[in-house]
Every structure is written in C-alpha cells, then in structure tokens.
C-alpha cells in the first residue's frame, strides 16, 4: 500500500518539491472519491479543502436562475480543483461538480494554511505552484471570452 | 520583340522622319500611342502624327506639384514622364475577364470574350518605363500562372523609346539603375536633339522589327559627333536627377522596421487617396467585380485596378486587416521597395517619381526611406 | 503547373452540386462534380475558388481527401454574400470552380513522425483531408492526436467523423468547447489547454494547425512551450483571396502571397509577421 507521501510525490504538481514539504502536506491530505454528479465544492461554502485530481473529470460551473448552469472549464488528472483556500475570506467562488467519477486527494486547507503561516518557505513553494495554475486559467478564460469561433 | 544589340553609332532622322515613323507604324496596323496634351498635363493617348505631340512643352514636377511650361525650343519629347504610365494600355484599368449566362434550366455557362488584343506602338517610352514593363511582366507572365491577355498585349507591342533629355524634379532612375538611357527592351530608341535651328533624332535599333520599320523611314548613319552628342544628352540628364534613393540593404531595412515611428509620422500626412498606386507603373493590384444585368441571366466578371490603400483591399471575414493609414502606407512602401525583391527578384520601384508628384500632400518615398535609414529602430520581425 | 499555365487561369470550370448537407446551423457541406467528368486531384490543405452566379467568388478549402473519390467537397459557412449564396445551393445547381490552389499540409513529410492536428472551429474542415490521408496509411506514422476546439457542443463540426476516429485504438481524439451546459460531458476550455497533456514527442512530431488566427497564434505558442521546433508547426493562413494565382496582390502577408506561397505555411517563416499588427 502506497503512503500518502509516495502518492503526492508522484503528482506532477509537486514535482521538485522538497521531501520534507511533501511530508508536511501529506499530514493534511486524505484520499477521497466523488460519484458523477456529486459536488467537490459549492459556491459560497467555506474553502476548507482543495483537491488534486488523480482520476476522472470535474467541471467548474456557475449556476444562474432560470437557466442551466454554465460550465466554463473542466479539470482532469493532475489538475487542482479549488484555489480559494489561499485567499481570504476562504470561500469557494464556483461550483465544482464531478462529471465522471473522480478520485482525488483532498487537502485540508486550514491545516495547510497553518503550516504555510508557520513555515514561509513552504508557503512560498505553494504560491509558486498555485500562481501558474491561476494564470493559466486566466489566460484560457481570456481566449474563451474572445469567442474566436463566433461570428464577428 | 526580338532582342538585338543596338547599333553602336546609330542613325539620324529629322522631324519629318519621326512623322514618317508614326505613319509607318499606323500603316502596319499598330494603335499608335504617345504623349499628348490633355487638361494641362502630358498624358499617353492615341496620337495622330507629330502634330499631336506636346511640341515645345515641358513639365515641372515637384512633390505634390505638376505644371506645364513652355520650352524655348520645339522639342517633341522635352518633358520627364507622362501622368499615367503605359500600364493603362497593357493592364487596362477595367477589363472583362469572362461572362456567365444562366440558362432556362438554371445551369450556368461561362464564356470568354473574343480577344483581339490591341497591337500597340508606344511612342516616347522612357527607360524607367521599359523597366516598369519588365517588372510587371515578371508578375503577370513569369509566375506559376500567366495572365494570358496581358502577355498577348505585351508581346505585340512595338516600343519606341526616347532617352530622357530632362530629369524631372521627382526623378531618381539613376538610384534605381533604370535609366535615364534605354539600354534594352525597345524596338527603336530615339535621342532627341533640339538645339536652336538643329532638330534631329539619333535612332538606335533594338530589334529586327525595329530595323524593318526603320527601313521605311528616311535615315542616314550617324556621325561620331552626332553619336557623342546623343550620349552627352543622357549623361547630362543622369547628373540632374531631382531625387536620390539609397537602396543599399533596403530590403532588410524596411522589413526589420515595421514598428518604426516614421510610419506614424507618414500616417499623419497620408490621405489614403491611392493616387500613388494608380500612377505607379508597376503597381499591379486588382479586384474583380461581379456585374449583373437587369434580367439576372447574365453576369460579367470585371477586373479593375485596386489599391492597397483601400479598406476593402485587406478585408477578411469580420473586418479589414489593415484598418489604419499607417499600416496601409507601410504595406505599400515595404512591398514596393522590399517584399517585391523576395517575391519577384527585383525592386518594385523604377524611380519615375510619379508617386511623389501626384501625392496631394507631397509625400516623398525617398524621404521616408531616408528617415528610417537615419534612425533605424530594430524591429521585432520581418 | 505547366498545364495550369496554358489555360486562362481566371476562367472557372462548371461543377454540379451532387449533394448538400447541413453540418451546423450556419455551415453546409457541398459535394461537387465537374461537368467535364474530370476526376479532381489535389492535396490536403489546398483550396478552390468557388463562384456563385451573380454574386462572386470566394476561397474555400477542400474538406475531403481526393483519395476518397468524392469530387470536390467543401464545407461553406454562411458568412457573407458569396458564401451565403453557396451555402444555399441545392443538389443539381451549378457553380464555377477554379483550382486547386496553394500549398498543402505536410502529410508526406510527416511520415515516421508523431502527428498532432489542432483545429479550431471550422478549421477542422481544411484539416480533414490530412487526417483522412494519415489514417489511410496509419502504419507510416507515429502517434496521431486530433485536438478540436469549438464554441459550444452545438458547433462541433464533423461530429460523426470525430466519433469514428475516436473509436479507433490508434488515434487520440480530444474535443473541447469554450462553454457548455451541464448536458455536455466532454472537456470545457480553450483548445490550447489540450496540448500539454497530449501524447507526442516534441522532437519527432509535426503539428498541423488551423483555425482563427488568434487561436493559431496561441496554439503555436503552446506547441513551442511543449518543446516543438517552430519549423515543424504548420498553420493555414487566411487573407483576402481574390485571384488565387498571385496576380492580384490582395492576400499578401509580408513577403508571402497566401494564395501561392500558402495557405499552409511553416510557423518559423511567419512567426515574426504574426507578431506585427495589421501587417
């Protein structure tokens, strides 16, 4: 049976991460499963955890009255679901729903935030990994907003 | 037209001989076209003998300015270049490419107009203009596809060059190595000497067709002194160029400076009027219009001159690629002086100066190049 | 080229619409057969000039390989007067066709390499003949990946083809849409996002990219980031094509005439031009 440290170490997201930091994170992590249709995160809920997807696919969506929710991105293996745990007031901004059964590592946000506060080296390493994720998604969103395939 | 080395010393004809030359050409079925006075300008048009020529007139050309002036002699070709080039004859401003008919069953059929191409005799072609025909020839005849109608008109043309005796104020053929003396590409080349009582033409033969025509015109062999006098005319003209353009490394200079601040500067002045492209003897851009008749059963595909200064020119689904005057001027000048070299192995400019003269605000491409050359800003790309 | 040079290159041949099939709300696929009975031959990536009587001509890429023996097949999007008239043609109608013109996709050059197809929107149409020819000789290529992005699940072009290709065990097919409702179980996100997770060896791959210019620019950027040399990335450029034979000047893109030097051009040749606005 693999330890959580081994599992985390295999994730590309933690590639190059110092072993002692992986051990710190492993202390906040647990395996979890979601059936298709279950929510990983709900808009407005406290951002108590974030997820590293190992298998399956989750959709980030925005619900609006009198119309079906709109999916604006899907996230698969190796990708992070949930970035609001880093930013006060630590509440989920969007719904995250499993469109296929999802196997993921859930990381306790309160636990990791406390460790990041007490060890700024760990905090900086986490920021260096989260910032590109957020920038990449911002870029993709910009290109989607352009609606390049639509009629001009 | 068969290439033939010009006779070393040449022949001499008088004004009567010129008249006779025009008559012979007309007699051989050529449509004789040459310089003529129209609307206070010298244009190339159908002529009816020496009397049609702008005898005793010259042109004064400067950026944005053109005026005719009286000469003190009776020179027939005592000006620089006509308003339009010969382009308008070889590459007509409007030409029906083909027509389509829709039958009663709804099926369409296509037919091409019967083309009996005009057989032109061009009288008074300048050396820069001969080069311009060669430049357009590379575009229309030497690519993977040939404009067959253009090729037929050009092949049938009889060219009487006249070496320039006056350099215009906007001329820079010496910089472009296209003149002022015609070295090839003509059937006959004349050098006019109109000096007080004396008025004669030195004739050089450039082809067998030229020799055959000259046979029918009274002529005498030129003396060494006469040949020398003719040569001196071209030398004097060469030394009197109104403008100069440093072409050293010009392709890289322009292709490497697409973001130069000078393009903003010229955009402040350029009106996007397209005059420069209309009068340019090498600009070849065209569009095709669909003309339908009222019955809706007949359609014509009409090719017309187009200009890179229009918005429609670069239209793709959604809008125009070049919506600013800055980008359109940059396209025109970079194409003419740089990209043309990649595309056709030659500059697209022959130094005739028309784009400078006929620019309503006097934009001078030689100045624009000089400004970029004086302070190149390493561009991002080519 | 020799034969083409002898003929008046401005004059079209007449073709009959053999079939017209609605692909999307605004796009129709026409199968055309020359009245002359000639069997069209062309390379993937080339285009024809299609003439709608009384309206005009427009450049449209072939969307089925010549090897399939289905004549000229064009997917036309109703985006203007001419394309609108073409999209409205019914079986039996006649139209004018000039072509084929332009450069093709590097299908032969890609042999022995991984092939990455990146399509955006209707950009899949000019790529489909290349996909067909690669799959017809599948054994000659390394890994084959098809990435298609479009606006929404309603705008997926050639859905049946994509499904058929996806069923093969030797092709990776990924489709992503810019936005979707919850009925969509596929990927949502811009097509460039599929590139980092695609299976290809950047040193031994050829990428063929077609779509709106912005999409191609960012796709090329993502391919470079994935380690591909610029010379192995091919884009199909769109410019105003009038004559299609290099005589009218309209389609110039820097020193290139898109009609005869393109439309398919290697990225290393045009990367600099793509970075200059309004070139």
TrEMBL record, chain A:
It comes from Novosphingobium beihaiensis. Gene3D superfamilies: Jelly Rolls. This is Cyclic nucleotide-binding domain-containing protein. InterPro entries: cNMP-bd_dom (IPR000595), cNMP-bd_dom_sf (IPR018490), Env_Response_Regulators (IPR050397), RmlC-like_jellyroll (IPR014710). Residues 13-113 form the Cyclic nucleotide-binding domain. Pfam families: cNMP_binding.
UniProtKB/TrEMBL annotation, chain B:
The keyword Metal-binding applies. Residues 259-291, 340-368 form the 4Fe-4S ferredoxin-type domain. The keyword Iron-sulfur applies. Gene3D superfamilies: Alpha-helical ferredoxin. Keywords: Iron, Iron-sulfur, Metal-binding. InterPro entries: 4Fe4S_Fe-S-bd, 4Fe4S_Fe_S_CS, Helical_ferredxn. Pfam families: Fer4_22 (PF17179). This is 4Fe-4S dicluster domain-containing protein. It comes from Novosphingobium beihaiensis.
Automatic annotation (TrEMBL), chain C:
Residues 10-107 form the FAD-binding FR-type domain. InterPro entries: Cyt_c3_hydrogenase_gsu, Dihydroorotate_DH_Fe-S-bd, FAD-bd_FR_type, Flavoprot_Pyr_Nucl_cyt_Rdtase, FNR_nucleotide-bd, OxRdtase_FAD/NAD-bd, PyrK_electron_transfer, Riboflavin_synthase-like_b-brl. PROSITE patterns: FAD_FR. Pfam families: DHODB_Fe-S_bind, NAD_binding_1. It comes from the Bacteria. This is FAD/NAD(P)-binding protein. It comes from Novosphingobium beihaiensis.
